[in-house]
Amino acid sequence: MTLTVLLLLAVPLLFGALCLVLPTSGLRLSALVAGSMTHLAVVIRSWTSVERVAADDLLGTDPLGHLMLTLISVLFAVTSVYFVGYHRKRLISQRVFLACMLGLLAALSMVCLSQHFGLLWVALEAASLAATPLIYFRLGARALEATWKFLLMNSVGVALALLGIFCVALSTTGVGEPVSLTVLELVRGAESLDPVWLRSGFLLALVGFGTKMGLAPLHSWKPDAYGEAPPPVAALLAGGMTLGAFVCILRVVQVCSAAGLAEFASFWLIAFGLFSIATAAVFVVGNNDYRRLAAYTSVEHMGVLVVGIGLGVAGSYASMLHAMHNMLNKGALFFLAGFLWRLHGTNRISLVRGTISRSPVAGVLLLGTLCATCGLPPFGMFFSELGIILAAASQGQWWVLALFVTTLAVVFVGVMTAMLPVVFGDPPQAESMIATTGTEPRWRRGVMLSAAAVLLGLGFGLGVYQPDSVRRALDEAAQSIARPQAQAIAALEQPEVHP
Amino acid sequence: MTVLRAIGAVPEAVAVLALPPMLLSIIAKTKAWFGGRDGPPWLQPYYDLMKLLRKGVVYSRTTTWVFRAGPIVNLAALLCAATLIPVFSDDTLLGFGGDVILIAYLLALGRMLTVLAAMDTGSSFEGMGASREVTFGTMSEPALFLSFVVLALATKSLSLAEMLGAPLQAAWGDVAPAMLLVVAALLIVLLTETCRVPVDDPATHLELTMIHEVMVLDHSGPDFAYITYAAALKFLLLGSILVHAALPHASWALWIDAPLRVVELAVLAMLVGVIESSLARLRLQRVSLLLAGAFVLSGLAAVLTFYRTHA
Amino acid sequence: MSVETATDLVLVMVILLDLGMLTVSRLATTVRFFALQSLLLAFLPLAAATFEGQAPGMHALVIAGGTITLKVVLIPTILLRIIRTGEIHREIEPFIGFTASVLLGAALVVVSFAITARLPVPREPVSNLIVPASLSTVLIGLLTLVSRLKAITQVVGFLILENGIFIFGLLLIEQTPLLVEMGILLDLFVGVFIMAIVVYHIRREFDHMDTHLLDELREA
Amino acid sequence: MIKTGIYGLLRVLSWLPPLPRTCALVMVAFGVVSGVLGVLYALAQHDLKRLLAYHSVENIGIIGMGIGMGMLGGALGKPALVALGYGGALLHVLNHALFKGLLFLSAGAVIQATGTGEIDRLGGLARKTPVNAAFFLLAAISICGLPPLNGFVGEWIVYGALFEGTRSVPRLSAGVSALGVVSLALMGGLALACFVKVFGVVFLGKERTGTRVARATPGAMRAGMGVLAVLCVAIGVLPGLIVPLTGAGVQVIADLGPMEFERALPSVLAPAGRLSLLAMVFFGLIATLAVVRRGLIQKNAVALPSPVATWGCGYAAATPRMQYTASSFAWSLLSSFRALLCPERRLHAPAAVFSEAAHLESHTVDMAEQDLFAPLFRAASRVSRMIQTLSWTGEPAMERRSARASERLRPFVAVVVGATAAVRRGSIHVYVAFIAFTLLVVFAIEVWVAPGAEGHSAPISVMQGAPQ
Questions:
Q1: What residue of A is the nearest CA neighbor of C116?
Q2: Contact exists between B and C (3 or more beta carbon pairs < 8 Å)
Q3: For residue C220, is it within any domain?
Q4: What is the pTM of this model?
């Protein structure tokens, strides 16, 4: 286990403990920001001297995990800054809250780094447990109900995933000498795995982690949880947690494609993906709560991710690109949702009008984010969805292409018809908003909007032009998903550098 | 297009320009023979033209330059079309691949200008004529084009000269019924375009019933001469297309072909005369039915040729 | 009485406890049933080790000890304390009546046996009952989750589901390193602990524990 | 602006591998429908600008047909068809931009001069704004695709593509191309009718009431229009300049070699040079005939009485209101296409012998907009509403209906109603039930699709049918 891996886990935990201990809230908040910033620094440094995972390492930075770790770390850094602007006195107990936030960061880092399936599950379970108190932030019946649903659904889902992992493990028993459950070992010995157990394991893992990720029809907890959780937490969940679950699914997909079940896996991935986008399309139309609307767009983006993976290497590359932009976009969307809540005091779309006239910057940012969510050209989502369309076309799957495009179109219509009046409508004259708006100190609004602007800017920048380092990282990750054998063999040729 | 060929074509061109009024007189003569009358003298149309060319011009207050340009552009369009349509010999003066479309659209250009000239006068009679002319013109286009499709399919080429030339003879061999239908459709289109009886009565005096005549009501002097000559020329051109389609044969020497074609055109004129004397005018709604019939005929011909060529 | 018959006996007892739990309406009894089931399951790793001939290694002992301390002692005490503080003791009128749920449970057991018959047999396990027992426990756990109203029963349902998966894990004792095994147990414990806190809050907030009344969040 | 749609379509086509034949035929069908319906609606319009807008629909139809033919060529592997199809479409895009621009500019001049775009209240503008009238006429001639001007060049190549399409082997595509030819001819005729109506009613005839005294179009506008007009005539007379230009475009779309394009085009249509030759002949003839006419008129100039009113067959008191208006002009055509357009006519016939006001009002509703898209959007939101609330009526009133269920079925209905109510209320049990249900379904499909445990089973991927 290399130094960087240790650091990646230790830093958040250390700063989490600090948050518990520090007396004043100012100190605690600075600890939060410091923690996430150092974590980001360590991740960026790890990119400079990339050493791939050795043979039987429990924890290591393989291309896929490394990419996802970077995304999560970037999101955390920006969210912590946003949280400083967003946070106000009313809080269950700030110590526990901040500690859990950093705990979530540690758990998600472990998910990305762990090569062993069992460890993967433990990390993901820890992440969902760390996230539960975060949702129960605002005390009250609705928050409580959201927490209960989140907790129960995720625990059941992840339990089933554990069963799936055990089935995958069971498929190796037929081989004779037991193979340790690391991704590399499984990929290398993939041909000899027993297909029936592997297939049932994949399906169980897909349903289990799918619940965690929010694929339809297992998505029903998502609108409730994201609707009630405070916006920074919702951003973390939508951007970070889903990526964690996505990594777990991709690990199992790696094993399946190595064992020659790629076609089987892609069939189910595409089926779930399209169903998710369709469900999101149906529930987006006529929705009257912009946070639930954002949650359904998250369900849709999960669908797009999974469909991408099901479409071979080109699709996987587009899917990786989509994962990056999903993180950026979801973050910005929920930050702005939080700002809207502060501005208008309600999350019912019918009551919220004329954001652009009340605060032009927020209005413009909101418009940009909405365009990004629906995948309009200047933003990155467009290029990733286009990549998926081209991948589907080159594989001649016209039905998939047709369904994919129509459902995305319906989502576009649903989102835009709902949200454009929010941006451009004329603000209600009667001061129906709660008095809390407008009295926001200027620096808080500045911090919140700048965090959203950073994410939106990244979304725009990385969409139009991907620097080749980013492109190489995405490509390596895509290769490792679609053609794991090449990756595994390459890793093994590496000389045994460290224990 | 060598200069020699141009010089060689001059006598043929002169003949083509001189013939049309004669066809009108043949029609008049056959109608008169049917009516037991002597009918106007053979050269009556020429006398009319001469008379008109010598007469003065009267323009109404409301007309603008469009009224004056109408007849000129109409006649020019038709003369252009004449250079593309084989009348006596089988090759045309300026024919090229795809000139079929050009011919149809030149006719349409002529029709457009005449109709605009009619509307320029601002009288409701001319407006009525214009509206009817446009309606029936629109309805005859599909039938005309479908017949061209059939001819193009049968002879594998897009230039009218080849379509109506030797390859058509072979086409008559294997898709004879289709060719017959095409000829019938072209006959109906001819009758519509040149305002003969079943569609429009050239000899009537009641404006409400006219189509073509009422449009040109207000023209006088040389303008009216241009228009009458253009109508006659149009009859000749469409007639020769019909004749070439009906009786295609490899082009022998010019001195055999020319008289043969003239006789065939004369027979066609007589046929039109017979139709005019035996049939009464159709009610306006029935005319669109007739044109739809023409379209169906050429449609059937198309289906037959498709069936045969794409067996 | 050889090791195989002992394990078979234990597994059969586990399945019976599952079905028994479906019939019980008192919350406290369901928790006690769960504790008993966990106790029985704690012996299985020992039996699996002795089946391979060598004495039960440190690995199996640690797992057995962990299971007992967590699942037999700690979790039931927490749940029972919550039941005692809240006045609610019975599961009245759940979605699916008790008799119906038992019949359904039995059907699920039959289904799990049928499924195992189709699945290829892994390398010579301790007893061929392991897979059907785990499947039926998992399915009955899901059934409890879906059909019972009270939050506590739902937590117990989740724990039964977890037990089912634990049985399944027995087949792979050698492959999963100790760290992972303990991680799973620890996660389970923390999970249930947090659930207990949330249930406590629900009871305090709504002064009832019927989760089906938690329905404020829905499509407007 | 509409061209961006076309650009997007072509750009995507250049990426995708050659699509199967059915896509091409669907494209041609779209072209036909939008063309014919577009021009029919244009014919039925009363407002100048709406009329021009609907006409764009027709031109896009023609461009669509061209693209369809190009795609068909791609599918059948006939470079000639590809070159003609895409070439025609691109050329028509260019030409359409020119003459439609000119039309809108001169329509703007009309509205600026008279203050209204309502055709039936305009009239006799050719005398007041002759230059504007000339530009409008020129643009009208080219939009109907009549020979000397640029509209014809685009349509001529699209016609070439369609004729070439009729010769393609598979019978269905040949049939569709023939349908294309016929519909293009019909569109040409209808376009002619439509623009004759507009030009005649707006610019010619006597001035109808209700418009300001028209001022001459200012110089600047005339200059702008002049540029476009010159371009239209230039392309019309010298198509040779433009055709190779579109050749480059085609090569990008269908990645056809430059050689193939050069060879493909002349195989079907003569080089564009012949068109310019004929244009020269045409203008020459006009010039000679005009000179002859002027000469004759001078020669036999007769003492002209002061210009008299138009001969109304003896009816002296003809008022401007008696002229043919737009709707009356188009009515004979519209009535024959009644089936397609279903125009509405409200007639207040004169009641008594000396009735006071009789009123006839007819207008054509855009069928696509009113009968196709509006209900489609309403239905889509209703369906999603139904799915969201899981009730037929869209609002959760299911509970009341269960009371009416028959006695015997009541328990069963109660369960169903309870279940849907539970789902709608979003209770946790239902969410967990969803997980169990998905598992059940997934494994059932898996077992049904790949029975038997042995061997590497290739699942019948229902989703992956590739109709190549």
A1: A197
A2: no
A3: no
A4: 0.72
